[in-house]
Amino acid sequence: MSQWRYSTICPELNRSVDFDEELRKILQDYGMKGWELVQVLQPRNDTRYHLVFKTERPLYPSLEPAKH
After folding, report:
1. Residue 23 class from Cβ within 10 Å (0-12 exposed, 13-18 middle, 19+ buried)?
2. Which of 41, 14, 44 has its CA nearest to residue 26?
3. Integer Cα distance of 29 and 31 in angstroms
4. pLDDT at residue number 20
5. Where are the alpha helices (DSSP H) in the chain?
6. How far, in Å, CA of 1 to CA of 30, rounded?
7. For the segment 15-67, what is each residue's pLDDT rounded down to a tens digit?
8. What is the rounded distance in angstroms from the CA atom of residue 39 to the CA atom of residue 31?
9. What phi and psi values does residue 22 have, to the nearest 5 degrees?
10. pTM (predicted TM-score)
């Protein structure tokens, strides 16, 4: 069974530039790091979008000793 980690961000998108381009950069960056966009929320009385990402968490933590 897969286990997931979640991250939520509320980006401040610059309205003076292309909205789609700014959003694409965010999605590209998170995607390259292994995160998948799973939800876009805009709560009432909030002008910001909340982007919810998930990534698969390893089932077993690394067995290597911690590096100091």
Report:
1. middle
2. 14
3. 5
4. 86
5. 19-32
6. 23
7. 777 888 888 999 999 999 999 999 999 888 887 889 999 999 877 666 555 55
8. 14
9. -60, -45
10. 0.74
The token duo for 52 is: 């919810």
Please name the amino acid found at residue 13: L
Amino acid at 34: G
Place of tokens 């995160």: 35
Tell me the C-alpha distance between 14 and 16, whole Å.
6
Sheet holding 3-9, edge to edge: 3-9, 50-57, 36-41
Spatial distance between the Cα atoms of 8 and 62, rounded to a whole number of angstroms: 25
Stated length of the chain: 68
